[in-house]
Amino acid sequence: MELSAEIGTLSVIVTRQPSEPMSTAVTEAARSLAAGLDSLFATDGGELRLTAVGRPVSRQSRLAVYLARRDRLWGSFEQSGVELPHGERYDRELEGDADELRFGGAIELASPNELPAALEITRGDSALVLGRLEHGKWDWETFLAVDTPEPKGVEELQRAAVGQLSDDLFAIRSFGWFDDVEVGSVVFAADHVLDRIESALAT
């Protein structure tokens, strides 16, 4: 994905051993990042939100529609065996294809300690973590419903997030698949935000 001149990236990478499970290595990198953000948030405030878009279901299937409306977004993740981070949950039905039903939402993480669980979800679903270094109002509903174009997959979600990054906002996704040796997390933000995060990681 091409980034604007104002936005850069910071990667937190670990080298995975051949016998080491992928999720273990990715979690190690996420914990390092969480520790750095925790120290920043302790002095400056800040917040993290796991933001996700669910898979669409056909409105032609009454059972599929019933289950989707019963479970909504986060319930569907739990039904699939996904371990969700602790925090206040929000979701809503998204407008889109008239023949499909889809939900999107956010979890305001209870603390940076929940970041590893949140980032594990970003590795395999249409999800990412959006954060800011100081507390402030963020319109997640408009972001998912309007700013993220169809088909609202990982690429569209990430592109929309990067387009929103200004001031102290940042976005994070984890990476690592199949037999990758170098795995971890990547932070997207303006240079001055990356500098503050990098300094926190170095302490």
Keywords:
8-stranded antiparallel beta sheet; 203 residues; 39% helix; alpha+beta; 8 strands
Q: Total number of helical segments? A: 6
The run of helices and strands is EHEEHEEHEHHEEH
The strand count comes to: 8
**What summary fits the major beta sheet?**
8 strands, antiparallel
Kindly state the mean pLDDT as a whole number?
92
Overall 3D geometry? globular
Runs in which pLDDT lies below 50 for 5 or more consecutive residues are none
Distance between the termini: 31 Å
- Rg value: 17 Å
Strand coverage percent: 25-35%
Helical content stands at 25-40%
Structural class: alpha+beta
Descriptive account of the structure:
This protein has 203 residues and is α+β, with helices and mostly antiparallel strands. The chain has one domain. The protein is built from six helices and eight strands, in the order E-H-E-E-H-E-E-H-E-H-H-E-E-H. Strands 1, 2, 3, 4, 5, 6, 7 and 8 form an eight-stranded antiparallel β-sheet that branches. A hairpin with a 5-residue loop joins strand 4 and strand 5 (100-109). Helix 1 (22-44) packs across helix 3 and helix 1 packs across helix 6. The radius of gyration is 17 Å and the shape is globular. The two termini are 31 Å apart. The model has no long low-confidence stretch (mean pLDDT 92).
